[in-house]
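@here heads up, posting the sequence + SMILES for the NAP run so it's all in one place. Ping me if the SMILES looks off, I pulled it from an old spreadsheet.
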Amino acid sequence: MTIEADAVTSKKIAIVTGGSRGIGRNTVESLARRGVNTIFTYHTHGTDAEAVVSAVKDAGAEAVALQLDAGNVASFDAFVENVKGALSRLGATHFDYLVNNAGNNHRNMPFETATVEEFDSVCNVHFKGVFFLTQKLLPLINDGGRIVNVSTARTRLISPGGAVYGSMKGAVEVLTRYLAKELGPRRIAVNVVAPGATETDFSGGIVRDNPAMNKRVAEGTALGRAGVPDDVGRMIASLLSEDNRWVNAERIEVTGGYV
Ligand SMILES: NC(=O)c1ccc[n+]([C@@H]2O[C@H](COP(=O)([O-])OP(=O)(O)OC[C@H]3O[C@@H](n4cnc5c(N)ncnc54)[C@H](OP(=O)(O)O)[C@@H]3O)[C@@H](O)[C@H]2O)c1
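bot reply: prediction finished. Complex structure tokens:
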């Protein structure tokens, strides 16, 4: 299947899931500074999404915010229709970059007591949603486009309570390599970024707001502090750029050197 690059707009267009806060928000704003327009999603924080749209405008680009529950695959067909509407507002029919970033809080789940309900809930958002949203959006991605999936350093660094979350992110890392192979004929590069502990609202804001946790992370990090969204979002925006066009099928850890 060949989809020619969009002739209507000269600006690149990205879709970023979970762009209303944290790493996703920073990715949207970093892309805007690089002149990339974005369709991004929020789940429940519509007010934050409005603030991101304004910030993107201030940076000289355009953004459209769409509501999405990344864990509800039954809603994806309707979401794709919303994406087509948003693309039309941006003067396009296709987009160039997909960032699968959305993720939600979950409790630390010891393997022995994790329930089927908790497993399904984490799987739906962090793996099943990524798999099928990418599949549904594929016809709208321009040939030569790029996909970045967001994983975690916790697929390498094993700590108690992370079996469910870490396994889902591990699955995303394997999926990344399969996508890179299968989408190669369309010149679509697919990589996975694995952030270390980053100061966001994630998991109740524990990395940012719990001094003991923050200190522990800083002490284990070669560069001596916990990560902030600007450490990761910028890197993702850079990875999507032409500068990194030959980087494909890679897992890239962004931790400041967490050992
Ligand atoms: N922070 C870390 O330490 C860390 C480390 C490694 C990997 N990660 C990964 O990085 C990604 C972003 O995390 P973050 O730290 O930036 O988190 P965050 O600050 O809590 O932001 C999460 C984003 O995802 C959206 N979201 C949450 N649940 C959703 C759902 N069910 N459907 C659709 N969107 C949903 C949120 O939308 P609303 O604003 O509308 O709620 C928000 O935009 C996640 O995949 C996470 O696993 C984070």
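MO: The pocket of NAP is lined by residues 17-24, 41-45, 48, 68-71, 101-104, 125, 150, 152, 195, 197-198, 200-202, 207 (CB under 6 Å).
MO: One more: The beta strands are 13-16, 37-42, 63-67, 95-100, 141-150, 189-195, 251-254.
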